[in-house]
Write a structure and sequence with these properties.
- This protein is α/β, with parallel strands linked by helices and 210 residues long.
- The protein has three domains: 1-56; 58-111, no CATH class; 116-181, no CATH class.
- Strand 2 (124-126) and strand 3 form a beta hairpin.
- Helix 1 crosses helix 2, helix 3 (36-54) runs parallel beside helix 6 (89-100) and helix 6 runs antiparallel to helix 8 (184-199).
- The strands form three sheets. It has a five-stranded mixed sheet with strand order 11-8-5-1-12, covered by helices on one side.
- It is built from eight helices and twelve strands.
- It has helices at residues 6-17, 22-34, 36-54, 64-71, 78-87, 89-100, 103-111, 184-199, and strands at 116-118, 124-126, 129-132, 137-139, 142-145, 148-151, 154-156, 159-162, 165-168, 173-174, 178-181, 208-209.
Amino acid sequence: MNTCPEQIVHLMHAYLDGDISRDEERELKAHLESCPECKEIMNGLTESIAFIGSATPIKAPENFVDSVMTRLPKEKSQANAQRWLRRHPLFAAAAMFLILMSASLFSSYGNDQQFSVTKQPNLIVEGQTVLVPAGETIKGDIVVKNGTLRIDGEVDGDVTVIRGSKYMASTAIVTGTSEEIDEVFDWLWYKMKQTVKDIFPSSNDDKLDE
C-alpha cells in the first residue's frame, strides 16, 4: 500500500459511494487482485459500512473514546503511528468506526453551527457565502460548513458542503467529487473517508478556516 498510487484510495471512495464508472471499477478490481493489502483495507471498509447501515444509533459507554485511545500502541512519533495503522488496516477501520459512533460525535454534529471554509486562493467569502468566481480555477478541495457555496468558475478537486447549500452556474466545472451532507450517517461516512485520508495523507491537504 505504501507504493500504491493515491488514485486507488479515491477509487475506493467512489466505489463505496456508488459514483464509480465501469472503467474505474475495472481498474480498482484489477489493482485489488494484485495488492492483498489494499484488498484487505477495502474489505474492512465495506464491512464497516454494511454494519453502519444495519445498526441502530447507540450510546457509547462513558469514557469510551479515552478507553479506545489508551489501547492504541504508544508510538514516539506520528510517522510510527501511521506505519502501525497501515500494517493493521482492519483494526484501524474498526477503531475508526467505534470512535465515530460514540455519543460525543453525534452530539457535535447537532451542535456545530459555526461557519467555516477551507483556505484557498481566489475564493471570495462574503458572510456565510463562498464564491468561486467565473474565470478562476481553484486548485485543491473545498469544504464549506454551515454556509452557501456558489461555483461560477472551476474547482480542480473535490467539493463538499456540510449542512449548507451549493449552486453551480452553467460555466461551473468540478473535476473531483461533489457532495452535500445533510444527514448524520452521511456525515459519519464523510468522517470515515477523512480518517482514511489522514492514515494515507497527501501533500495537498488543506486546513479549515474556522
